[in-house]
Design brief:
The chain is of the alpha/beta class. The chain has 2 domains: 142 residues, 3-Layer(aba) Sandwich (Lysozyme-like), CATH 3.40.80; 64 residues, no CATH class. Helix content is 39%, strand content 8%. The chain contains 9 helices and 5 strands; from the N terminus they run ααβαβββαβααααα. It has a 5-stranded mixed sheet with strand order 3-2-4-1-5, sandwiched between helices. A hairpin with a 5-residue loop joins strand 2 and strand 3.
């Protein structure tokens, strides 16, 4: 009897200690969709009939190609109350939103989508002349309700991930930006507590140096400089706010010489 009790206890311990994945069903959906896209990619292109257009006698496939690679990193806060809530949101078809990575407050990283695939994270956005940001970027969501600071464990995991992505895809330092930068009229994430300078110090984003003694030319145009950096200036007030939130951790709309100096210093990096 004692041997039976010990064996049963061991079985019960092992059973309870196993982590049950609540996303088995949606993981199957992910694999099914991935296989469907793989079949599309493997299809031999077929010539289509067209009036007055000569058709080729056979298909010729080039041997010189590879997968498209991301060239931007877009950082978000989830604006939700927990990692489990966000994971559920990103696995419900009706929400129509997703990201490549979700980083929880304790630093746990969930890689939800292959980096080569297109997540639905940027939405209606613009950076420079780019209007389809989803197609060229990796989206990273940080568990944060929008009014919190970002724990060290979370930022440390983010820095490790950014280092991997930058090396893997040769992403330029200037191409690490926030959701609020590319959609200033709609979004404010990551919030003003986000440590952009700490990222820039590691090579993930551009920053400015000491602006003491910087002379801003009289001919300098703030709006032109914001546009050159990448901001959509259609709503200039929103662009100014996005810039200040990113580079000054400030959410006011005031604009003066300190901001002019910062903007001028950054603008010169883009010339």
């Amino acid at each position: 009897m004692r041997k039976y009790i010990i064996s049963f206890s061991l079985f019960l311990f092992l059973f309870l200690s196993c982590k049950v994945n609540p996303y088995k069903t949606t993981n199957k959906d992910y694999k099914r969709q991935s296989r469907a896209y793989a079949r599309i990619l493997s299809q031999t292109p077929l010539a289509t009939d067209a009036d007055s257009v000569p058709l080729s006698p056979y298909w010729v496939g080039t041997t010189n190609f590879n997968m498209r690679r991301p060239n931007f990193i877009i950082i978000h806060h989830t604006a939700q109350n927990s990692c489990p809530q966000t994971l559920q949101t990103f696995t419900l078809p009706r929400t129509q939103v997703s990201a490549h990575y979700v980083i929880c407050k304790d630093g746990t990283i969930y890689h939800m989508l292959n980096d080569y695939l297109r997540a639905w994270q940027a939405g209606i956005s613009k950076w420079g002349n780019i209007t389809d940001v989803n197609s060229i970027s990796v989206g990273i969501e940080l568990d944060n309700n929008g009014a919190e600071s970002f724990p060290d464990a979370q930022i440390n995991s983010l820095l490790h991930l950014l280092d991997t992505l930058k090396r893997s895809y040769k992403i330029p330092a200037a191409n690490f930006i926030g959701h609020g930068d590319i959609a200033p009229t709609r979004k404010n994430d990551p919030n003003a507590a986000f440590p952009w300078k700490a990222l820039a110090d590691k090579g993930f984003g551009l920053w400015y140096g000491d602006t003491t003694g910087i002379c801003v030319p009289e001919s300098f145009s703030s709006l032109t400089a914001l546009r050159v950096i990448g901001y959509d200036i259609k709503d200039s007030s929103a662009a100014v706010l996005a810039f200040k939130r990113h580079f000054e951790q400030d959410t006011t709309r005031t604009w003066g010489l300190p901001e002019q100096k910062i903007l001028y210093t950054l603008y010169r990096k883009y010339e």
